[in-house]
Task: inverse folding
């Protein structure tokens, strides 16, 4: 019962957010009727009454047939699409020069090098920890015996 009460509000909010994000992600060349900034303002100002989002979805964006490569303003997609319009994920591995990480010898080699560096660092840390534990153990034994074991235990020299 509680959800049904707020469902219309949530649907309006979802449409408002969708239209806003769609407008922001649409390239300027595909915006129709008004400049993109004006469409953003229309969506934001008239979103609560659904006029802005519905106007954007109906008249604001040129919606042509979907092409093979698609179009998006995202920089990553522009840099990672192939020249023939086929997305790199759907291209044949040999055609795009991409190999899965577990089959890529360079990637596996880099993992081995990183692993060796990490192991060397871990060994250094373990050796430092053993040395510190040994120093602490000697200090504790010296404190129990009443003897001094290091420069930390000796009192400072008196000034003359």
Result:
């Amino acid at each position: 019962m509680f959800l049904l009460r707020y469902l219309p509000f949530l649907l309006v909010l979802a449409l408002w957010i969708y239209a806003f994000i769609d407008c922001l992600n649409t390239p300027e060349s595909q915006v129709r009727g008004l400049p993109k900034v004006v469409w953003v303002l229309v969506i934001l100002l008239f979103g609560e009454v659904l006029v802005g989002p519905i106007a954007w979805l109906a008249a604001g964006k040129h919606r042509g047939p979907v092409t093979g490569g698609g179009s998006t303003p995202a920089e990553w997609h522009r840099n990672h699409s192939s020249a023939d319009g086929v997305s790199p994920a759907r291209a044949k591995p040999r055609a795009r020069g991409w190999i899965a990480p577990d089959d890529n010898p360079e990637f596996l080699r880099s993992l081995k090098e990183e692993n060796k560096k990490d192991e060397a660092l871990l060994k250094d840390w373990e050796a430092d920890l053993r040395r510190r534990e040994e120093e602490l153990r000697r200090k504790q034994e010296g404190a129990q015996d009443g003897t001094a074991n290091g420069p930390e235990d000796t009192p400072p020299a008196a000034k003359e």
